[in-house]
Amino acid sequence: MADATPLYDTYARAPLRFERGEGVWLIAEDGTRYLDFAAGVAVNSLGHAHPHLVSALKEQADKVWHLSNLYEVPGQESLSRRLTEATFADKVFFTNSGAEALECAIKTARRYHFAKGQPEKFHIITFEGAFHGRTLATIAAGGQAKYLEGFGPKAPGFYQVPFGDMGALKAAISEETAAILIEPIQGEGGIRTVSKEFLQELRALCDEYGLLLILDEVQSGVGRTGKLFAYEWAGVTPDIMAVAKGIGGGFPLGACLATAEAASGMVAGTHGSTYGGNPLAMAVGNAVMDVIMADDFLQHVRDVSLVFRQGLASLADRFPEIIEEIRGEGLMLGIKAKVPSADLLKAIRAERLLAVPAGENVIRLLPPLVTTAEEAREGLARLERAAEQLTAERRQASA
């Protein structure tokens, strides 16, 4: 087929081609402006073409792009210090993606018990509906059949329990259990929030049984919920945490954070990455932290999220035929639809608003953290028009 794309057919892409971005806006090749509340699936934390990020990247590009981890990289030292000073962690390993950060987290947990003379403790308990990445280990951790199918036997050492089921979790713990892995808010799974009480119980359970608590904050981290990391809302601390997406503001960057104790088995030669922590990524990551950690920035996220959440609640009240429930925290929000979510996404896109599909018939709204209250209201107005259109279509079809 002469007209077939040479790309893998692994994506059902929307027929949209964007050539540039400005803040919360994406501009298509034909000049049409879209309000981007997808943000590259929570990646573009500071929107598009943020001047501080652009300046940092350009400045570093004139110096050195790549060194490898055979040498010291000053940007790694500064970014890791900022991350550890702002979190529970003592140690950081830089990666290029969220899946790689999870791979490092999994290896860190297993290696910890191995180094303690307990090599049999390598099983990790995860939760149904989770999404931890696309590698063979992370699809096994997520446990979803649609991602596992066709790739041979599931990687061993992962055991899923129902979401939020403490009884099933306790029953799953054995002498082989090394850790519990959970997203504070399931993103791909449908913006399902883990309660503060459940996270607190998990921490206590890990302490009781000598397990490591691993948090996947790839999507919920770096200010997305109104705090630097979502675990802060529950007042607990993990032993290991995977971070990516928003930390790079659009540049490929991930990180695995851990306490000194949890990382104690990761000695020289046990793990590595050719590109992880490269100078370009470190320059951008430090620039993101400059903005996120500035006075009042996270308060701004909380203020705008309140405007957005109240507006979504109003839409749910006014369009009960379309919207079943509003979910999420901060600027990680979901609309559980009563109509097929694909229909709602199509209607939203027709209003030049971008969002992201998720499990449980949910549409994710992940605006850049720099979104203003006015831009949030503009997004709500477009959602309202989409809901009005769908309501009219349904009533016409049933007439």
Quick gist of this model?
With 399 residues, this protein is an alpha/beta fold. The protein has helices spanning 39-42, 51-61, 74-86, 98-115, 136-142, 145-148, 166-172, 196-209, 279-292, 297-318, 341-350, 373-398, and strands spanning 18-22, 25-28, 33-36, 91-95, 123-127, 158-161, 177-182, 185-186, 192-193, 212-216, 240-243, 254-258, 323-329, 332-337, 353-354, 356-358, 362-365.
Which descriptors would you attach to this protein?
17 strands, seven-stranded mixed beta sheet, Aspartate Aminotransferase, domain 1, Aspartate Aminotransferase, domain 2, alpha/beta, 12 helices
What topology emerges from the helices and strands here?
Elements: E1 18-22, E2 25-28, E3 33-36, H1 39-42, H2 51-61, H3 74-86, E4 91-95, H4 98-115, E5 123-127, H5 136-142, H6 145-148, E6 158-161, H7 166-172, E7 177-182, E8 185-186, E9 192-193, H8 196-209, E10 212-216, E11 240-243, E12 254-258, H9 279-292, H10 297-318, E13 323-329, E14 332-337, H11 341-350, E15 353-354, E16 356-358, E17 362-365, H12 373-398
Parallel strand pairs: 3-15, 5-6, 5-7, 7-10, 10-11
Antiparallel strand pairs: 1-2, 2-3, 4-12, 8-9, 11-12, 13-14, 14-17, 16-17
Helix pairs in contact: 2-9, 3-9, 10-12, 11-12
